[in-house]
Amino acid sequence: MNHYDVIVIGGGAAGLSGALVLARARRSVLVVDGGEPRNAPAAHMQGFLSRDGMPPSELLAAGRTEIEGYGAEIVRAHVTKTIQRDDHVEVQLDDGRSVTARRLLVATGLRDELPDVPGLRERWGRDVLHCPYCHGHEVRDQRLGVLGWTPGAAHYAQIVRQWSHDVVLFAAHGTLTADDRERLTARAIGIVEGDVASVDDGLRITMADGRAVERDALFVPPRFVPNNHVLVDLGCELDDAGWVVTDPTGRTSVQTVWTAGNVRNSRAQVITAAGEGSAAAIALNADLVDDDVRIAVREYRA
């Protein structure tokens, strides 16, 4: 089969949740997934009601089994090009296939951009962490650090302080205001100023001037970069930061294209992304029903 009601691009929580709703609505659905989930380095998934502590790979495997049980198809591939035609969208894949659909649900997520500090990327998802709500409970009451390389890092450290009395903020020179310092000191958050040279075994944070501080976990707020090449190809409106502009259901400025999850919402955790996928699918199916009615009326009149 080469033509579908809906092609879902991205097989994470948002994409699979949307595919489940659409398949249960008796739509023909194809999920295109590159097999590179953002949370692959994480051993466990936290904060998902009834699934707290489950390995992310198990959630995705269960989701794939569920949607295939309702007749949806899954293909492991990357999208190389998308083209908006008159009444459908054409999707070209890197396995040589070309498939079409009446609608697209784009759930391609985002990527985490980290500072260029030796040793940081290698520890990502283990003891270098990005989200205190995802990982804070597991490292509670330990020696925690915050790498302050983005705006708002001082406030981020205040949030991390919720999980431990021993928190140190590593802040570049000139990034802290007097108000920041007062607030950090008031809650006994340590301040180490300067450039971080490396993150070494034993989670030893070495500064450019030779100072070294040992921590048990280091929180690094990443810069979020949406995986939006499909949306760019299709001419979807983006804001100044490169995030897609949508209505509350995830519909883009291109009327055949919906989005869900981290590609449109950098703050969406797994449970949030799954909810967005479901909501987008319901709105998308309603739009398809309107289309079905228009076609039926046209044929009836003919």
Automatic annotation (TrEMBL):
Claim: Oxidoreductase is one of the keywords in the record: yes
One of the record's GO molecular function terms: thioredoxin-disulfide reductase (NADPH) activity
Record key words, sorted: Flavoprotein, Oxidoreductase
Tagged with keyword Oxidoreductase: yes
Pfam family, one: Pyr_redox_2
Domain FAD/NAD(P)-binding: 4-277
Reaction(s) catalysed (UniProt annotation): [thioredoxin]-dithiol + NADP(+) = [thioredoxin]-disulfide + NADPH + H(+)
InterPro entries tied to this protein: FAD/NAD-bd_sf (IPR036188), FAD/NAD-binding_dom (IPR023753), Ferredoxin-NADP_redctase_2 (IPR050097)
Protein known as: NAD(P)/FAD-dependent oxidoreductase
Organism in which the protein naturally occurs: Aeromicrobium terrae
Organism taxonomic ancestry: Bacteria, Bacillati, Actinomycetota, Actinomycetes, Propionibacteriales
